[in-house]
């Protein structure tokens, strides 16, 4: 499985929705950490849950963080938490949401980029 990523920083990429099956591919691609910015069931009942993705990430040897953020608005607290994750998680980091846009906006807001 290939993962569609967009580089937003030297060692940070964003991607559209990833499921449990993508975690091994993320690890194989060299990522050390994954940040999930998509709230559970935002895409309906068939969307993979945080718990399922977290279990797959752990099995693949990835550090996993869940920071659900609603589309359209990122609060100062959410931006600050994303910045904390960027500062503390092993790199390279892969962040994802439904389309990748929200994760990219969080990155830019947290880093001033």
Could you describe the 3D structure shown?
The protein is an alpha/beta fold. The protein has a five-stranded mixed beta sheet, with helices on both faces. Helix 3 crosses helix 4. The chain is globular, with a radius of gyration of 13 Å. The N and C termini lie far apart (30 Å). The mean pLDDT is 96.
Tell me the major beta sheet.
Answer: 5 strands, mixed
Number of strands: 5
Q: Helices and strands, in N-to-C order?
A: EEHEHEHEH
- As a percent range, the share of strand residues is 15-25%
Helix-and-strand structural type: alpha/beta
Please tell me what the overall shape is. Answer: globular
Major sheet strand order: 1-2-5-3-4
| Number of helices in the DSSP assignment | 4
Q: Would you tell me the overall average pLDDT?
A: 96
* Cα separation of the termini: 30 Å
Binned, the helix content reads 25-40%
Low-confidence stretches: none
What is the gyration radius calculated from CA atoms? Answer: 13 Å
Topology:
Elements: E1 6-9, E2 12-15, H1 23-28, E3 33-36, H2 50-59, E4 63-66, H3 76-88, E5 93-96, H4 101-111
Parallel strand pairs: 2-5, 3-4, 3-5
Antiparallel strand pairs: 1-2
Helix pairs in contact: 3-4
């Amino acid at each position: 499985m290939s993962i569609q990523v967009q580089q937003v920083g030297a060692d940070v990429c964003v991607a559209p929705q990833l499921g449990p099956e993508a975690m091994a591919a993320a690890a194989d691609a060299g990522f050390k950490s994954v940040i999930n910015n998509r709230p559970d069931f935002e895409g309906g009942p068939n969307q993979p849950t945080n718990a399922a993705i977290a279990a797959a990430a752990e099995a693949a040897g990835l550090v996993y963080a869940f920071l659900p953020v609603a589309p359209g608005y990122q609060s100062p607290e959410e931006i600050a938490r994303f910045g904390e994750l960027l500062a503390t998680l092993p790199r390279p980091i892969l962040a994802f949401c439904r389309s990748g846009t929200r994760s990219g906006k969080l990155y830019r807001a947290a880093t001033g980029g």
